[in-house]
């Protein structure tokens, strides 16, 4: 089997350092592995958090990227799921224990022993993992996803994180006809939450700091759009929603947002602020409300999401960039200056 060395990639050499072109080695293609020629890699806000150690100590040099779309170019001798030429994706993890109750249920993201992250993690042999800001990836076939022909690869790449991160809680909390769903924040995650919730048949409201993106929100499938900077919003919408999906990565006044829920409503965090948050417990007690979190999705649900997006003709709204624009893109993400996901054309690495 092929032994890959000197694979072009973009890496952060140290915490908070600009990313730069480098080379990395990939493992030999094993019996159950596939070799993917990466075509596109999305830039997730979590890439920035990790490259700048906002969530804790990282492993450097770090090659970010867990929104990966490409084509199989080689298969191991025991591979049965994929063939050369297949369109595939890889999301936030590339392995798990495979034995715990959650792995057996297809909830690998909650693996008791912890998943092997696609980047800024370590393989079971201790070697660091490198992500999708590169030209090739070797992965066990069980941790790859099939990208249907109905989705362009560049628009599919962000679905491997932004898509499944929002799809999973919408499904778990039963978004659909007759349900009123609010999406907090209209960014990379938020724009997919709006598309998915609308496609599921829910009545969707966007809650954003301003009305700057209102036209986009309505175009993406929202019925209503409100500015959270306007205090009247919280009075007007009090007790309105069955489900709120919070996609922002900054602390919020949770008591105010919980007041927007109906009895038995749920406020679900998929954004992960670097700072802690606080709330008054009476905000939960009064109304039997739920404050929850949700982490990506397992392999079966991620495949379900990709098939759902194909059926409903959904892809991410993207801006394709060259690899030498990554550092600029990071700053634009922090400034909320992207509609709505940067995707790297990895042929430019």
Automatic annotation (TrEMBL):
The keyword Transmembrane does not apply. GO terms for molecular function: oxidoreductase activity. It is an enzyme of class 1 (oxidoreductase). Keywords: Metal-binding, Oxidoreductase, Zinc. Residues 17-344 form the Enoyl reductase (ER) domain. It catalyses: a primary alcohol + NADP(+) = an aldehyde + NADPH + H(+). InterPro entries: ADH-like_C (IPR013149), ADH-like_N (IPR013154), ADH_Zn_CS (IPR002328), CAD-like (IPR047109), ER (IPR020843), GroES-like_sf (IPR011032), NAD(P)-bd_dom_sf (IPR036291). Its cofactor is Zn(2+). Its EC number is 1.1.1.2. It comes from the Bacteria. Belongs to the zinc-containing alcohol dehydrogenase family. This is alcohol dehydrogenase (NADP(+)).
């Amino acid at each position: 089997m092929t032994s890959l060395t000197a694979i072009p990639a973009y890496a952060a050499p140290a915490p908070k350092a600009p990313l730069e072109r480098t080379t990395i080695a990939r493992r030999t293609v094993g019996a159950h592995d596939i070799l993917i020629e990466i075509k596109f890699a999305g830039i997730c806000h979590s890439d920035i958090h990790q490259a700048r150690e906002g969530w804790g100590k990282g492993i450097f040099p770090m090659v970010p990227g867990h929104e990966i779309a490409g084509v199989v170019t080689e298969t191991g001798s025991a591979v049965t799921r994929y063939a050369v030429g297949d369109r595939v994706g890889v999301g936030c993890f590339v392995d798990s224990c495979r034995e715990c109750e959650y792995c057996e249920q297809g909830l690998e993201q909650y693996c008791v022993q912890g998943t092997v992250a696609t980047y800024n993690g370590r393989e079971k042999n201790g070697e660091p993992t490198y992500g999708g800001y590169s030209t090739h990836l070797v992965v066990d076939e069980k941790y790859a996803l099939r990208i249907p022909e109905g989705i362009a690869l560049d628009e599919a790449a962000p679905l491997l994180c932004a898509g499944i991160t929002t799809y999973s809680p919408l499904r778990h909390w039963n978004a659909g006809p007759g349900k009123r769903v609010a999406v907090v924040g209209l960014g990379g995650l938020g724009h997919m939450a709006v598309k998915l919730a609308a496609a599921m048949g829910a009545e969707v409201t966007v809650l954003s700091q301003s009305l700057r993106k209102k036209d986009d929100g309505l175009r993406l499938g929202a019925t209503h759009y409100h500015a959270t900077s306007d205090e009247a919003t919280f009075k007007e919408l009090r007790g309105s929603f069955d489900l709120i999906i919070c996609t922002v990565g900054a602390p919020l006044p949770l008591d105010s947002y919980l007041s927007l829920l109906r009895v038995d409503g749920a406020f679900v965090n998929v954004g992960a602020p670097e700072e802690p948050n606080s709330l008054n417990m009476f905000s939960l007690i009064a109304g039997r409300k739920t404050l929850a979190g949700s982490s990506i999705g397992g392999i079966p649900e991620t495949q379900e999401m990709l098939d759902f997006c194909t059926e409903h003709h959904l892809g991410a709204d993207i801006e394709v960039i060259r690899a030498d624009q990554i550092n600029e893109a990071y700053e634009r993400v922090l400034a909320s200056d992207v509609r709505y996901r940067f995707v790297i054309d990895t042929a430019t690495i």
